[in-house]
Amino acid sequence: MRKKNILIVCLFAAAALLFCGLRFLAIPRLNAREAEAAQNQTDALTHDVRSIEAFKNPYVGNASNTGNLFAALPLNDIPMKFEIDSEACTLTVHYWDTVANIGEEKVRRALIYNSVAAMAAIDNLAGITYDFSGESDSFDRRRLEAVFGSPLSALLEPEKWSKEVQDPLKSADFVGQFFD
Fold this sequence. Notes:
By secondary structure, the chain is α+β, with helices and mostly antiparallel strands. It is built from seven helices and four strands.
């Protein structure tokens, strides 16, 4: 009977240690990694382009797909709504914040990044206008293809994307050419 009691106490102690290890070490570390990954997805320089693979679509008129695409792109933490013009194959994204509140440098990089990503993922998207409180910027496919190459969809491989889209966005001169 004594051996049985010792075995039960040992098993209980092991279970308690395992529970504490999971509860106070493993789960907080996992949560911290997930929070860091989510934060990385809000910035053009750290965004993982693989997150948009599921949203490739030949038509901009698929409102659900377009909304989900922008929810996976930088600035996804800013409330927004969309207007889709299926005839002109254009999109207007209305952000419910100002550029000054978000940060001009971050916004400019993100707008270029999001435009290239959206046009790479949506085959017939011809242009995007981003509307912030008091300010708007527009991008069209021809200009982006002149800078990044045609077709934009060829850039969606992670290594190529990093080298040809994200790395140039680190340069203020490169970003500035889109906002003159």
